[in-house]
Amino acid sequence: MQRQTFTDEWTVSVRGSLFERSSGVTGGTTVNLPHDAMLGTGRSADGNPHLGYFHEGTWQYSKKFEVPEEWASKRVTLEFEGAYREAMVFVNGAFAGQWANGYSTFYMAIDPYLFYGGTNEVLVEVQAFEDSRWYSGAGIYRPVNLLVGDLVHIEPTGLRVTTPEIDDDVATVAASTEVINESPITRTVDTVLEVRDASGDVVATDARAITLLPGEKATLRHRSYIHGPRRWNVEEPTLYSARVRIESSGAALDEATTSFGIRTASVDPIRGLRINGETVKLRGACLHHDHGVLGSAEFDKSAERRIRRLKAAGFNAVRSAAKPASRAILDACDRLGMLVLDETWDMWHMSKTHDDYSRRFNEWWERDVDALVAKDFNHPSVIGYSIGSEIIEIGTPHGARWSRQIAERIRSQDDSRFITNSINGMMTMWVQAPSHEAPAPQADFGPAEPDSVAPATSTDLESDVGVEAAADDSFNASLAVIFEQVIGAPRVGEVLAEPAAALDVLGLNYGDVRYELDKVAFPNRVMLGTETFNSRIALTWKMILDNEHVIGDFTWVGWDYLGEPGVGRPKYPGEDAGFTEPYPGLTGNCADIDLSGNRNPVSYYREIVFGLRKDPYLSVQRPEHRDHPARPNAWAWSDTVESWTWDLPEDSPVTVEAYGDADEIAFILNGDEVARAEVGTEFPFMATAEIPYRRGAIEAVSYKAGAEVGRFALSSAAEVTQIGLLAESDELLTDTQDVLYVDISLLDENGTLDRSAEVPVTVSVEGPVILQGLGTARPSTTESFLDSACTTYQGRALAVLRYAGIGGEDATSATITVAADGLPTQSLTVSLTQPA
């Protein structure tokens, strides 16, 4: 079907009662999709903590559009790439359909409800209310497309491409196409397949005819061959495109196009994961769906920016944690060479929040699985499906039964990817069915109370495994120890056996203790760390390298995210030790890359552990906490900053951390060696030293076997004298789907960033653009991303511009201006370019 964007000039309003709506009380605002309605609710201490203290609600989106008379002989469908949540679609006041899941792509046939030759209106109602453990956002937060096709047409997800036979000389391209005849007569049509390479040249073709009875749907299969195929992999992500065209008497009726890659993928416990026959260890990052200052609104440029920066930081895989990945993320992974583990849900039948998807699961799970496979099928980046995230009932016989059911539903449609489940071994013991068998010995973890289905508390878990957390430690701090001892218990291994049997790869959250245990007990098992602690990077990666049956690891988390505030925040004596940080906590604060897209120190440590970085890295523990260091936290990294600009008296002692694959690291202060420390004494790949603070330059020089192998330096910033503006592109498309990221930084006269500068900045724009978002990576703040001013964090802020789409047809440029008290105002002009 022919696709056209359907994103501009929607009206959004709070959905009130029928009386309020009929009285026009609710009002409305004109927006271009994608749009996150939750951002506009604001934050307060009485907001939802899981959501980062944003407020929940119900909204309605409406759009008027013209329908030509000739569409009366067409099929018209709306494609929603994501609407959060419980989307109810109405056309001209008539109910057209609904979709419960907020993350699935879904299609809505609207032609039965249209007025042809006049103005029509589509209205979508959504809600978000106590249904998520993270920031969900709300509204139509991903693009919407209008699909128009002939009565004989290709189904919206009807084109699927495989490459069943590949060698260096020839690759077979097998395209299956679902064609439907909704006309009242039998039709015979011609179909043509064209395959093009990355340069746009036709490299394979095939032509076939198909006869369809009225109302009949059939699968048409094309087969063609590419000579000298180029394979898709993470280093060279070569893409091809396939187009199937339907014709009748030489006239085009419909067509469908998709990109695809030529590659093989397999898993076994001897050689692990192999892409095109070569073993690949997954250096993975779990990834939430929000885009920081944009909330949940998803743009192609935003998705590509995330994947590009994650790959530059050393990752080669992402897991769409607890929800399906967007089409934009998958497209970016295809183009850039990033492997994907796409996940289904965060729960099945047992809830985790008051009104989550568990209430809809039983009725909707099959449609969600079908939508996931249809979305992912042609993406070479997708190597596996996960059927859940920390499912509570997974350790019960019926949980294992559901594992098989869901896995087989996927396999019936796509048997080319491995299937896993992100299982938290702790949760296998949280819910146990009543049993008449003799209870397991207490040393094997001990039986759950037969009539109890409540989650075990931290005290229960500590008692069961003999772990005693220090009285002044937070539960987060003791979790790593508790997880290791509980998940490694024999009883957990027994309970995991049946749900694991339904999978191709056993995925474990925080379960690396089982890698060696299961290698002996289950020699045919392939394993994967679907979620792991930051604090165990080096240990976990060594275990992965030492065990062929473990194919990789996904850290929690690759990019900081809204919601679950403070889960990874370093916590100091006297601070709240709970899992969730009080308001104004905003982000999880446990990521390699911060909310604005800048790398944190842990990212460089991980890159060194991966063996991808030769030079050392240097950061400084916050001096204000030197006498009362942070307590351990399973998800947190050391509270350090890549800065040598501190408001300290001369020669004040500071603690520096240097990471490196070396024997020792020397610390050079203003040309003099002031300390030298062995690497790995207290923590793998790390050396620490206490040195005097003196403005100037501090350098870490790493040595292996006595020879220098790398160096890294930090310099003190002088007084801030200028505002730096750096756009990620010199142009912005005159398309409301395009955005432009502009980094704002506070610099001295030499261009050195002052990470200690926290200065209010005000942003204004000129031309047919809007300020779509403005903010920083600050993990706890009262500032709004929708304001035109913010306070810099570590010397930085981030602005995102978007083409407004109104009155800008003749404009050729737009300008962003940033002002701060005491500093020269800085402006940056970007070109406005027509889309190709």
Give a structural overview:
- With 836 residues, this protein is mainly beta.
- The chain folds into 5 domains: 2-150, Jelly Rolls, CATH 2.60.120; 164-260, Immunoglobulin-like; 265-564, Glycosidases (TIM Barrel), CATH 3.20.20; 617-715, Sandwich (Immunoglobulin-like); 722-833, Immunoglobulin-like (Sandwich).
- 15% of the residues lie in helices and 37% in strands.
- The strands form 10 sheets. An 8-stranded parallel barrel has the order 22-23-24-25-26-27-28-29. A 6-stranded antiparallel β-sheet has the order 3-2-5-10-7-8, with no helix packed on it. A 5-stranded mixed β-sheet has the order 39-46-45-41-43, with no helix packed on it.
- Helix 5 (397-411) links the parallel strand 25 (382-389) and strand 26.
- Helix 2 (300-312) crosses helix 3, helix 5 (397-411) runs parallel beside helix 8 and helix 6 (458-465) crosses helix 7 (475-487).
- 48% of the residues are buried.
Which key phrases capture this entry?
836 residues, mainly beta, Jelly Rolls, Immunoglobulin-like, TIM Barrel, 8-stranded parallel β-barrel, 6-stranded antiparallel beta sheet, 11 helices, 46 strands, 37% strand, globular
Q: How many β-strands, per DSSP? A: 46
Tell me the strand order in the biggest sheet.
22-23-24-25-26-27-28-29
Overall geometry comes to: globular
Number of domains: 5
What would CATH call the homologous superfamily of the largest domain? Glycosidases
The helix/strand class is: mainly beta
N-to-C span: 21 Å
Classify the fold: give the CATH topology of the largest domain.
TIM Barrel
Overall pLDDT confidence: 92
CATH architecture of the largest domain, by name, is Alpha-Beta Barrel
Per DSSP, the total helix count is 11
The proportion of residues in beta strands is 35-45%
What is the name of the CATH class of the largest domain? Alpha Beta
Radius of gyration: 28 Å
Protein name: Glycoside hydrolase family 2
Family: Belongs to the glycosyl hydrolase 2 family.
Keywords: Glycosidase, Hydrolase
InterPro entries: Beta-gal/glucu_dom_sf, DUF4982, Galactose-bd-like_sf, GH, GH2_Domain-Containing, Glyco_hydro2_dom5, Glyco_hydro_2, Glyco_hydro_2_cat
